[in-house]
Amino acid sequence: SHYNEMISNPEQMPRLLQTAIQHAIGRGGVSVVSMPGDIASKPAPEKSIEHALVTTRPTVRPGDDEIDQLCRMVDEAKRVTLFCGSGTAGAHAEVMEFAEKIKSPVGHALRGKEWIQYDN
Questions:
Q1: Any idea what DSSP says for residue 117?
Q2: With contact defined as beta carbons under 8 Å apart, do 57 and 22 qualify?
Q3: Which residues are in the Thiamine pyrophosphate enzyme central domain (predicted)?
Q4: pLDDT tens per residue, range 27-80
């Protein structure tokens, strides 16, 4: 899981639940919130979420200078092999299109197997 926390006081619930939801959405995975029975039997605070939930994942990309440098390296290389990890999640078609364009074989790291392997 991306987030694992135990509520030890009912007053923690709104903040911990919001944090758990944000981690699950932002990191695209599981959040776990545990609550002992004695805490669960106490009244919940009448408090709403303090901040709006962010429901879209942020776009993370290298800077323009880094992209330009990579393009020059690919253009100048005799051969290129793409070695892909979990950062390729959700970008299988784009990786394969790029590999075909530069005539590159594609390998994968252990955490990239589910995103690349199935039809490479």
A1: G
A2: no
A3: 67-120
A4: 778 999 999 999 999 998 887 777 777 767 777 889 999 999 999 999 999 999
